[in-house]
């Protein structure tokens, strides 16, 4: 153990009494001139800790110790906003305190960044705070010191690590969600590219994750914050529309509340609470988008919530609501009798109110706690975090994610991310197993999708299905409330024809993986032949067994050289990817090779020009890395720019590789085996390449407006290769421009510069997915 670790206990001791200022609740830096606000509860813990001569209860001691260590470790560090970094872990701890997390979880919230951002290691965390806190901190610490080929790979690996940690202690995700929520609250200080990337990841992964765990308290705010940065115009428009009619809505709601309260009391219900609740902005906007409606057509902008003391009172309150107002057919849902997979329980109904339709939710106090705080509301998670201890079926999706990554599929980063997003998103179809369990699936799912959701072995050996006790085709789309029984046989195996009708990424990935494994010998031979043809037979066997080749396999997240050959043979890796990484490894071992000039590997290198480490670096000549030596073209459908995440797709015929943005809709139908991980070449000077981008500009129709825009672009050194104008009497003019840009950052600046012109009404990038 290092000297710092050995003396960690002494290092953790901070003279709190010298730095606390009780009158203004601030904490001063020991080395710099700044102060931070401390939440009342934490300030109280610190004072109690000192007054009791450090002999207060162990839980309180744990939180105070964690604060003191985090404070000292982060002293001198600052966030992008310019504020002292300690503000972030304190805010995370405060969010965890709000949802009732245990002392261990709050301590982990205070310490969650010290391993990643300071000199403190996990052994010191365990020494000072115990194994439980150490596991929680380790679960939310990003992988450091590891080289990733692109952002997709890094994102996949960090999520993989987090889900593995969640499988052993589900409370890891509470810290991660609180961390993400505070980061989203302060995201405006980051650059535009980073803001959009983090906001998109929040919407696609973390908000659905909060929903899966039933933590609506976090889910709603994460969705609204992502909405604010991903669709800023729509966000502000919707916010303004809601504000304009707020007073009228509140008056109507008050009348309805009073009427409902009187009728509930008359019906003999005494212990109840009735409130009006506004719906969050993203929920309203997504409904408008889904139903293609305008704001004034959405009636459940606000809703009533009735909280009673037991389940029986829920149904009695429902009867009162339906007696008071006319129910809307088809709008009643009983999530008490049939809870959602995340444990959510409530009665939902929509009725015709005094002026317009209104939504009503009815639940008990305990149901409300679970609806707001999810797993944090369950006492068993405060004493131990393993999902296996209680309600394990609620975490079936988590078990499957962990199983999948343990089946040897670490290299399929895009597949893994797609599977995560599919497994986290809201289910739209709920079916029932023979044991009476409810399973949520994506709309349009079939028996095969259901079988793989249960377990990969059930899917691999499925040979029939009974829907509502009737034999049905495997391709039958499942409906809400269907009773499903999967028939299996040890002799049955997956069919590649299933790929024509399954809809979930999980099922598609498992079918492809089975095919890879079942044809392993064939794919290994194909990969071997490809590599041998490229590097030559001389010294090939020595090359395969060399340390350099083993390291190439490890860098591709594969365990053995055979796995590498199989992936090469199946198309999971390209020949150029393997050769380029092999050259890099050989270059690192050049000195060893020189010292042993008679070795087989040395002879292979000397006789083979294809692996020469002295050949000119052609990668720097191309703006795209990962496809060296291959023909490629930039996809016109999405026109990606440096600074945006990209992916390559193998075109049919002799058209080479097409480069798309990762979120391009045209990538979705392309099979995984025809997708290549690529990235922008960081060694290539951005200014050496110009990429064509189509802009659509809506302007006030006047003489000279196009000239003014072109002059603005010319002043910024931006070339315009094509321009046309469409006009119509009494309407704005539409200008379509094709401009050559260097990066996404330049695109953003260009749009802002044109948007600032007085005659410009709107501007948008054309071809954006």
UniProtKB/TrEMBL annotation:
It comes from the Bacteria. One of its GO terms (molecular function) is GTP diphosphokinase activity. Gene3D superfamilies: 3.10.20.30, 3.30.70.260, Beta Polymerase, domain 2 (3.30.460.10), Hypothetical protein af1432 (1.10.3210.10). Its EC number is 2.7.6.5, 3.1.7.2. In eubacteria ppGpp (guanosine 3'-diphosphate 5'-diphosphate) is a mediator of the stringent response that coordinates a variety of cellular activities in response to changes in nutritional abundance. One of its GO terms (cellular component) is plasma membrane. It comes from Prochlorococcus marinus (strain MIT 9301). CDD domains: ACT_RelA-SpoT (cd04876), HDc (cd00077), NT_Rel-Spo_like (cd05399), TGS_RSH (cd01668). PROSITE patterns: ACT, HD, TGS. Residues 426-488 form the TGS domain. This is Guanosine-3',5'-bis(Diphosphate) 3'-diphosphatase, (PpGpp)ase. GO terms for biological process: guanosine tetraphosphate metabolic process. Residues 85-184 form the HD domain. Belongs to the relA/spoT family. Keywords: Hydrolase, Transferase. Pathway: Purine metabolism. Residues 694-768 form the ACT domain.
């Amino acid at each position: 153990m290092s000297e710092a670790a050995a003396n960690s206990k002494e290092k953790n001791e901070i003279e709190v009494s010298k730095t606390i200022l009780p009158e203004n609740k601030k904490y001063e830096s020991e080395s710099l001139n700044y102060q931070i606000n401390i939440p009342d509860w934490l300030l109280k813990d610190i004072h109690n800790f000192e007054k009791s001569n450090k002999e207060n209860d162990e839980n309180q001691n744990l939180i105070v110790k964690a604060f003191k260590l985090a404070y000292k470790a982060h002293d001198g560090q600052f966030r992008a906003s310019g504020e002292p970094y300690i503000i972030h872990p304190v805010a995370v701890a405060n969010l965890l305190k709000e949802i009732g997390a245990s002392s261990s979880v709050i301590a982990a919230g205070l310490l969650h960044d010290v391993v990643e951002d300071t000199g403190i290691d996990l052994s010191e965390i365990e020494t000072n705070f115990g194994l439980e806190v150490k596991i929680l901190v380790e679960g939310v610490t990003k992988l450091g010191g590891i080289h990733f080929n692109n952002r997709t790979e890094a994102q996949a690996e960090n999520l993989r690590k987090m889900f593995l940690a969640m499988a052993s202690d589900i409370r890891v995700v509470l810290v991660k969600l609180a961390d993400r929520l505070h980061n989203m609250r302060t995201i405006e200080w980051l650059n535009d590219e980073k803001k959009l990337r983090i906001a998109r990841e929040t919407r696609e992964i973390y908000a659905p994750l909060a929903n899966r765990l039933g933590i609506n308290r976090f889910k709603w705010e994460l969705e609204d914050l992502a909405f604010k940065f991903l669709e800023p115009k729509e966000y502000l428009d919707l916010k303004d529309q809601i504000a304009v009619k707020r007073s009228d809505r509140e008056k109507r709601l008050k009348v309805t509340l009073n009427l409902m309260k009187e009728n509930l009391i008359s019906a003999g219900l005494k212990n109840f609470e009735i409130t009006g609740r506004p719906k969050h902005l993203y929920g309203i906007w997504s409904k408008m988008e889904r139903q293609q409606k305008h704001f004034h057509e959405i009636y459940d902008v606000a809703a009533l919530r009735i909280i009673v003391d037991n389940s029986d009172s829920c149904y009695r309150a429902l009867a009162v609501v339906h007696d008071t107002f006319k129910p809307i057919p088809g709008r009643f849902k009983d999530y008490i009798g049939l809870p959602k997979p995340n444990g959510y329980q409530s009665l939902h109904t929509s009725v015709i109110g005094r002026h317009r339709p209104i939504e009503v939710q009815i639940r008990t106090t305990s149901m409300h706690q679970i609806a707001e705080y999810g797993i944090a509301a369950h006492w068993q998670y405060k004493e131990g975090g393993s999902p296996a201890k209680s309600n394990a079926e609620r975490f079936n999706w988590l078990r499957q994610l962990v199983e999948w990554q343990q089946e040897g599929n670490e290299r399929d980063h895009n597949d893994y991310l797609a599977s995560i997003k599919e497994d986290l998103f809201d289910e739209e179809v709920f079916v029932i197993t023979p044991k009476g369990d409810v399973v949520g699936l994506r709309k349009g799912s079939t028996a095969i999708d259901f079988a793989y959701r249960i377990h990969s072995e059930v899917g691999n050996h499925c040979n029939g299905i009974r829907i509502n006790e009737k034999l049905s085709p495997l391709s039958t789309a499942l409906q809400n409330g269907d009773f499903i029984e999967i028939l299996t046989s040890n002799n049955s195996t997956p069919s590649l024809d299933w790929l024509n009708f399954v809809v979930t990424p999980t099922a598609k990935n498992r079918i492809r993986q089975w095919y890879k494994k079942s044809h392993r010998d064939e794919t290994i031979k194909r990969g071997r032949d490809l590599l041998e043809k490229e590097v030559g037979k001389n010294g090939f066997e020595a090359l395969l067994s060399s340390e350099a080749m083993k390291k190439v396999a490890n860098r591709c997240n594969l365990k053995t050289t055979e796995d590498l050959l199989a992936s090469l043979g199946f198309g999971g890796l390209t020949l150029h990817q393997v050769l380029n990484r092999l050259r890099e490894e050989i270059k690192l071992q050049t000195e060893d090779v020189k010292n042993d000039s008679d070795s087989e590997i040395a002879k292979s290198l000397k006789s083979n020009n294809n692996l020469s480490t002295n050949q000119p670096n052609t990668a720097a000549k191309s703006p795209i890395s990962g496809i060296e030596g291959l023909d490629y073209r930039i996809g016109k459908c999405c026109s990606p720019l440096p600074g945006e995440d990209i992916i390559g797709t193998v075109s049919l015929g002799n058209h080479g590789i097409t480069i798309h943005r990762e979120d391009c809709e045209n990538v979705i139908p392309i099979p995984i085996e025809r997708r290549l991980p690529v990235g922008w070449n960081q060694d290539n000077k951005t200014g050496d390449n110009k990429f064509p981008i189509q802009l659509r500009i809506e302007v006030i129709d006047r003489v000279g407006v196009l000239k003014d825009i072109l002059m603005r672009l010319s002043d910024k050194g931006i070339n315009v290769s094509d321009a046309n104008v469409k006009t119509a009497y009494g309407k704005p003019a539409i200008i379509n421009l094709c401009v050559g840009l260097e990066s996404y950052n330049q695109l953003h600046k260009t749009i802002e510069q044109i948007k600032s012109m007085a005659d410009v009404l709107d501007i948008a990038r054309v071809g954006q997915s």
